[in-house]
Amino acid sequence: MSHKRLLFLHTGGTLGMTSRGDPGPLAPSAYAEDVLPFVRGLEELVHIEGEVLCNLDSSDLLPRHWEGLAGLIAARLDDYDGFVVLHGTDTMAYTASALSYLLDGLPKPVVLTGAQRPIAELRTDARNNLIHASISATMDVPEVTVWFNDELLRGNRCTKVSVQSYAAFASPNLPPLVRMGADVMPQHTPRRPTGPFRLRAGFCEDVAVLWLFPGASPRLLDLMVESGARGVVLVAFGAGNVPLRGWPEAIGRATARGVQVVVNTQCVDGAVELGRYEGSAAAEANGAMSAGPMTIEASLTKLMFLLGQGLSPEALRARFAEDLAGELLP
Ligand code: ASP
Q1: Is the CB of 125 under 6 A from ligand 1?
Q2: Of 199, 233, 260, which one is at a domain's C-terminal end?
Q3: Is the CB of 14 under 6 A from ligand 1?
Q4: What domain range is 294 assigned to?
């Protein structure tokens, strides 16, 4: 049986970094293109080719990099059985969410992975992650996913939860798709494309995220609107609750000016339910949209994506409430 063909797409991150001095900061290394020698034995299982898209700390990645990645995957879709994206952990959940919207009807696995320690270090987690991400990319999971530690997570459902732990990612509102220990253990049915593959494009960058806190002035939202935001994700309390004093009115002023306001939650686990409390009912009555079970990363990139599609405000609101890529539905 011939080996499955995988394309490794390198974007940067700790996995390929080297420490400039000890204990100096980790920076993208010149040898990042040479991660393949560290997983040489893998070629007994799969045929690997690699390409370096960029070599950046993921905090420097931009929406145009998301589009570049998606474009490359789309262009090579017929040439490979799966794709492994090597990516810094810090913004991996944003890229994974963005890719899930861009790669509409994706028929093959796209697995993002990274590491907490560089691949050249003895105690690295990079080898484990790369090997298992590669195995995941040969499986029948036609989704944008994130492999980390011992789990394959839906990309637009995961979030980075630990600075330290090798189990750096969690998917609080959806079980992992696959778990691998001594055995490969499927945990949740993957999505299947329901239509033909289409590469999408376009992100609006005039967006903001506003984290609520006791005493936060509604003026903060006004300031975002005045400075040109076209969409704001309000990271509210609990089930999406906002303070009654001033906030529903500020949301009303924003939406009256055509600014889309999404209410998400500071809780990691569980879904926003507007209307459960008076404050969130008033927010909804003033035009706020609910993030439901979406992560902050998935809701923000969805807002950026939909604002970039040139939709009318009504059409955008309708699309936002729909499941585009498994960010809402199981
Ligand atoms: N700062 C790094 C990055 O996101 C962290 C990592 O790769 O884990 O690129």
Answers
A1: no
A2: 199
A3: yes
A4: 207-320
